[in-house]
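ingest -> validate -> predict -> emit
validate: passed (alphabet ok, no gaps, 171 aa)
predict: started
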Amino acid sequence: MKKRSALMRKKNVKKEDVQRRWRYLARFLLLVAVLGGLAYGGWRATTSFDFFALQKIVVTGAPKSLGEAEIIQRSGVKIGTNLFKIKVQEVQSRLLQHPYFKFVSVQRQIPHTLVLEIHEHLPEFVLNTGRLYYVDKDGEIFKDITDSDDSRDMVVLSGFSDRKNIVSRLD
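emit:
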């Protein structure tokens, strides 16, 4: 009889162990569900509150090629939009399409401000390779001005025989 009772105890221990594991798993899944629900509810609340409505767009970096109103228009952001619904990368990529913009940073300032920091290429001279290009102080070619009406009085650098190599870097 002693052997049988020891065997029964062993089965009971295994059964209790399995039940304990199921309880831990159920508690863990319940915790994950509660935390997920809280995160989702928090996100829904922040994206729908009028408290986070955009009221002010600040442009920094002293851009000279475009005015502040034109930059805000190019950003595509409207006053009154929820700050958390603004897709920062999309705004940044829209602004970087302007040939003079070298660096653009878009940051949310809670509760209702969007900061657009813009650094521009400033033309130092014109590069003539058969076509005319602006070059900044870092030697970066940033704009083709061959067909434009830009009439700035600048130094023109010419005499390059390897036009294909220089132009291929532009593309």
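Residues 103 and 141 are 15 Å apart (CA to CA).
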